């Protein structure tokens, strides 16, 4: 049986870890040819090696999504290798915790630079290629914190809410070209990013985990593979009438 992304070419950013790595494995298993982008060269190389061993067609680029020349080069390399581009999963992101009066300006700038400007740059260079390829799907990884607040996370919440705004506007701009633009709003997911947030809040991982679970309607933290399946839905034709939307996959957190 053909995979749900058979014949598709996809770029995934933040692909070396967590949600991005789980998505890379799932997209490859569903037949996509992949360009994986991350700043972490070592983790990226080992993921590519594993995927190639299972027969996937995959290339990678050690690029910082906040740098226009690096993003442009990754998009160019994708089209040079595979001839097309159909899916952009702009997923790279960083967390950041701290009260606004105490947060160094450089930290605020870097959160916005990676989470918002990074997604903007990926869209900027990928969308024209997706249009030339006859249309496709753009997916941003926002967060449940685009929809609700979280103590000590003003900069992160701002960056993710802005992504939601950009999703809606891009959906209007590019729908007629057959390009759908949606964002994913994951809740707490078991990845290094979540546990770095615990550190920043001065909490132990166990304490932080227990607190999240106690308030989570489904009574557990999500797994990266559960977000990857939602990304696959948005990337594939299964979501063919969906654009400008936020897909919330948060174990019920925002229902509270
Ligand atoms: P993660 O830390 O496991 O993975 C993020 C990856 O992005 C890492 O491999 C990192 O090297 C890469 N990256 C960071 N900055 C980059 C840059 N400038 N250029 C290229 N790559 C870069 O974290 P994750 O949880 O898988 O995060 C993926 C996305 O999901 C992020 O946008 C994050 O904000 C979002 N998210 C995560 C959670 C969660 O609880 N884990 C919840 C909601 C949203």
TrEMBL record:
Its EC number is 1.1.1.47. It comes from the Bacteria. One of its GO terms (molecular function) is glucose 1-dehydrogenase [NAD(P)+] activity. CDD domains: SDR_c. GO terms for biological process: steroid metabolic process. InterPro entries: NAD(P)-bd_dom_sf, Sc_DH/Rdtase_CS, SDR_fam. It holds the Pfam family adh_short_C2. Keywords: Lipid metabolism, NAD, Oxidoreductase, Steroid metabolism. Belongs to the short-chain dehydrogenases/reductases (SDR) family. This is Glucose 1-dehydrogenase.
């Amino acid at each position: 049986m053909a995979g749900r992304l058979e014949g598709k070419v996809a770029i995934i950013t933040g692909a070396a870890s967590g949600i991005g790595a789980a998505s890379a494995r799932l997209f490859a298993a569903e037949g996509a040819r992949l360009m994986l982008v991350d700043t972490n060269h070592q983790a990226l190389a080992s993921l590519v090696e594993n995927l190639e061993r299972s027969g996937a067609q995959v290339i990678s680029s050690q690029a910082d999504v906040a740098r226009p020349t690096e993003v442009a080069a990754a998009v160019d390399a994708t089209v040079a290798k595979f001839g097309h581009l159909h899916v952009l999963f702009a997923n790279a992101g960083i967390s950041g915790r701290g009260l606004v009066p105490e947060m160094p300006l450089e930290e605020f700038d870097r959160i916005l630079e990676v989470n918002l400007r990074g997604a903007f740059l990926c869209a900027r260079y990928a969308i024209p290629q997706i249009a030339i390829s006859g249309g496709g799907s753009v997916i941003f990884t926002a967060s449940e914190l685009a929809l609700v607040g979280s103590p000590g996370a003003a900069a992160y919440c701002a960056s993710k809410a802005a992504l939601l705004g950009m999703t809606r506007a891009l959906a209007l701009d590019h729908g007629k070209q057959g390009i759908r633009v949606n964002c994913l709003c994951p809740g707490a997911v078991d990845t290094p990013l979540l546990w770095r947030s615990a550190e920043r809040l001065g909490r132990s991982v166990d304490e932080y985990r227990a607190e999240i679970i106690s308030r989570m309607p489904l009574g557990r933290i999500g797994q990266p593979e559960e977000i990857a399946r939602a990304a696959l839905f948005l990337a594939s034709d299964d979501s063919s009438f969906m654009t400008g939307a936020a897909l919330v996959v948060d174990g019920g957190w925002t229902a509270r």
